Structure formats: structure tokens, C-alpha cells
Sequence to fold (130 residues):
Amino acid sequence: MTRVDGRVRLLGGRCGQCGEIDFPRKEFCRRCGGGEIEVLTLADRGALWSWTIQRFAPPSPPYGRYDDDFEPFGVGYVELPGEVIIEARLTENDPARLRIGMPMTLTTAAVRTGDGSPTTTFAFAPEEPQ
Fold:
């Protein structure tokens, strides 16, 4: 995750041999095994490809630390057009407000690490008014 012109962006990789795009960027191409992987700033908008609601606290670590204040959260796959499908947290956790194909925008979400300290990760938010 980085910032470009004040906006959150994700950095992926594009294989110099076959053009395969991957996220996160890997050392070698998953398609052809090539080692010429260029850094690629990925699109910050996409479409919700699939989703679910995480209704129970995941085991920790490495998935963070949750005490009595756990709140369900959305997890989904967002398709960045012509690039890649990314698994990410969603800012929405109400199933009635999520649908396959809805436009999504890259943003951030506050989370806790395995030791309970706060940090920020990337997430996707619905573009449509709720």
C-alpha cells in the first residue's frame, strides 16, 4: 500500500515476459516463472466479485487480536478491470448492502495487529450511496 497524489494505491507486479499481473508483487511470475517483474500501480476502483461476512473472531495471531469488542466485518474479492482479483476487507458488514458486481473504491481500515496495537490496512468501500 502506498499513496499517489494523496490517494491510497496498491502496488502489484507485471511480468515482463508474459504480462501476467499479480498482487501482492512476487519475485517470480506465477504463470511463466519469469523473474522480470515490474512494479505496477493497480487501479483503485473495481467491482465486487464475491464476498462474505466474518462473523466470529479469527484465531490470533497472525490475524490480529480481538477481545470482547469484536465486530463482524466484510471480506471480499474485488476485480480490478483488466488487472487482477484482490482479496480484501470491506468497509461494509451489512449483507443487505452488498451485491456481486457493485462498484468498489480502494480505501483504508483500522485494524489491530497480533499484539493488539492499532495499524491500518487497505480495504474496499462500496461506491453506491447506502
